[in-house]
Amino acid sequence: MTKSPVEILNDPFLNKGTAFTAKERQSLGLVGLLPPYIQTLDEQAAQTYAQVESKTTSLEKRIFLMEIFNENRVLFYKLFSQHVVEFMPIVYDPTIADTIENYSELYVQSQNATFLSIDDPDSMKESLKNAADGRDIRLIVVTDAEGILGIGDWGTNGVDISVGKLMVYTAAAGIDPSQVMPVVLDTGTNNQDLLKDPMYLGNRHERVTGDRYYKFVDQFVKTAEDLFPKLYLHFEDFGRDNAANILNTYKDQITTFNDDIQGTGIIVLAGILGALNVSKQKMTDQVYLSFGAGTAGAGITKRIYDEFLQQGLSEEEARKHFYMVDKQGLLFDDDKTLTPEQKPFARSRSEFANADELTSLEAAVKAIHPTILVGTSTQPDTFTESIVKEMSAHTERPIIFPLSNPTKLAEAKAEDLIKWSDGKALVATGIPADDVEYNGVTYQIGQANNALVYPGLGLGVIASTAKVLNDEMISKAAHSLGGIVDGDKAGAAVLPPVSKLDQFSYTVAKAVAQSAVDQKLNKEPISDVDKAIKDMKWEPKY
Ligand SMILES: NC(=O)c1ccc[n+]([C@@H]2O[C@H](COP(=O)([O-])OP(=O)(O)OC[C@H]3O[C@@H](n4cnc5c(N)ncnc54)[C@H](O)[C@@H]3O)[C@@H](O)[C@H]2O)c1
Ligand SMILES: O=C(O)C[C@H](O)C(=O)O
Ligand SMILES: [Mn+2]
């Protein structure tokens, strides 16, 4: 179907704006519809970048960048790729949290997303087809928005996380933006402020749960798989009660991934490996404490635990190294409210003389003497000076990762952790952190955000045509990030910098694709993994 000139200018996958050549303007019927000077992509990027810079707040910058995204994908990604470090926190986390909270107020355009309503399941297939508009969809990011970052339930507004995660896939790993689709499953919201807000654009009822919810998710998975047979299905920010259930249901059947469980597990394992490379300590000597044992906390713990097994410990031996603290304090095995993911790491009260007193993080740290503390609690400023001092008193180089997002929810600031530990803490944060100057050393702070790994992982899975994404591939992804940072340099970060995102996405992709091929999980024959990845890679150019 050929598009009319106006349709072309309104199609972000086709529109080149002022970069349409004289010949294209003639042949497509665009003569007179654009100013006469023909810009190059570089000129367009320079001009739009100056406009971005003229905005004073991150939110204004993001709103402007989304205009470019809505109008011209090549230009958007050219700009993004030229300014990755500057734009990541604007396009993605933390600014994305503001656009989700204000989605209805800020709404101008649907951004090629698909909105699937639990009240209208019969139109699901048609909706997905309409949104694909004939495109060959290889990657969907889907959310039901029950647990957006650490800010909770945002109903239909959560669609922005699907859009944002996909933008990072393209900027970091070169996934073709015409082959992706953001989806929100609107199953209602329990956010009372949204339900009362006359401007709210989603379904105005409480969340549907139980069978009807799982049937709707299943209908979505089956319909999407049926329509797009080469699909890699990424789940994002589902609630704690559903995320692991959904992953466990589908992970052996289709090519799927849960970012909060698996992506976060990979980046934290990579960060810990990086930290141990600095401290020259052994993984299996570490004592691990997860603060906030929800979707991410439990997913990370399981990944690190699996690493202990891989390094030769028995299940029983390995389990002795792990502790979890959630709302109720240290998790014990007599607790009836434990989730299935928490149960394996709950401890026996008989291990402690003062078990009943271990109801706070501080008490737990005193009793356990963890060497690694990872925060996924959504509780700001909970890694206090006294906790950090207590950890530092019992271990030479404490590994402390406050990972809750966005910025306002982080368990601690990198700067404080460095200061309170007298420069000893090996720190990574969920959102970007500035260098910290302390006692004449410049400490670089790694970003332990799943965005550093999920794009490469996805590229590797898609390029290798893998049937499933399994633990072996996930482990290979985490280990592939080693060696990029020089751990012997004073103040070295525990993870590679965002400025090298495209390079290490490629490293991750190669490790994952090679693992898929080695395990014979590829659906199509692949003789050269490197070439398969390079052939997949999309670049922003006309
Ligand atoms: N850096 C990253 O890549 C990354 C990845 C995923 C999640 N996260 C962050 O981790 C946080 C949690 O995300 P999630 O998806 O696991 O959410 P979740 O709701 O599944 O888990 C949060 C957990 O924290 C617990 N909690 C609440 N209050 C607490 C308290 N006072 N003390 C101890 N625990 C408490 C909850 O009971 C729950 O188990 C979010 O802020 C999210 O942004 C970061
Ligand atoms: O979205 C992010 O920044 C990371 C993570 O998936 C989260 O939920 O916080
Ligand atoms: Mn997430």
UniProtKB/TrEMBL annotation:
The residues covered by the Malic enzyme NAD-binding domain are 261-517
By what name is this protein known?
NAD-dependent malic enzyme
NCBIfam families registered for this protein in UniProt: malolactic, PRK13529.1
Query: Which keywords appear in this protein's UniProt record, sorted alphabetically?
Result: Metal-binding, NAD
Give the SMART domains listed for this entry: malic (SM01274), Malic_M (SM00919)
Q: Does the keyword Manganese apply?
A: no
Location of the Malic enzyme N-terminal domain: 69-251
**Cofactor(s) needed for function:** Mn(2+)
Q: Which family does it belong to?
A: Belongs to the malic enzymes family.
